[in-house]
Specification:
about 160 residues, mainly alpha, two-stranded antiparallel ribbon, 7 helices, 2 strands
Length: about 160
């Protein structure tokens, strides 16, 4: 992570790198949520090893706990945990690393745990009305999205690393 003196000179990240990082992270999250679902199925004991591969039994016949509000909250916690741990560790998810963008606290440095959680949950607000909270970057004086403002964070574009 760049130090505070250098980070003040970094440009804010635009909309395209943010959305492309989300696409990359979406692929990782898909795999992670599949794994989380498998764990939930195994824990509830509803995994039947005797079902043949061509069986007509599908997920709708799974335990009702896997379709309820508790399961949905569990999956949201997995997503929030994914982003929070990455942002708190070094300010970047794997998708953000690929697109050379980084989340920082508005004051500089790593965002705090609370900022990461607020940022993740309020990103839903930014996505809900047709990604309007992301497009907001184009008109905001500091190039911040809605969830940047609500969480006291900013997303910066990192320079290319020197080859050698």
């Amino acid at each position: 992570m760049p130090d505070n003196a250098n980070s003040s000179q970094l440009p804010p990240a635009g909309v395209l790198p943010r959305i492309m990082a989300m696409v990359y992270d979406g692929m990782l999250l898909f795999a992670l949520l599949c794994l989380a679902t498998l764990v939930a199925v195994v824990v509830t004991g509803k995994l039947d090893p005797n079902i043949p591969e061509a069986s007509s039994k599908v997920m709708h016949e799974a335990d009702p706990l896997l379709g309820g509000l508790g399961f949905q909250v569990y999956l949201v916690m997995v997503v929030v945990g994914f982003y929070t741990l990455f942002w708190r560790k070094n300010g970047q998810t794997l998708g953000m690393q690929a697109w050379r963008i980084q989340v920082q606290a508005s004051s500089g440095g790593k965002p705090g745990w609370g900022q990461c959680i607020v940022r993740c949950l309020t990103a839903i607000i930014s996505m809900a009305p047709g990604f309007l909270g992301y497009w907001w970057v184009w008109i905001d004086r500091d190039n911040c999205s809605w969830h940047d403002r609500l969480s006291g964070t900013r997303v910066l574009r990192l320079p290319k690393k020197a080859k050698g």
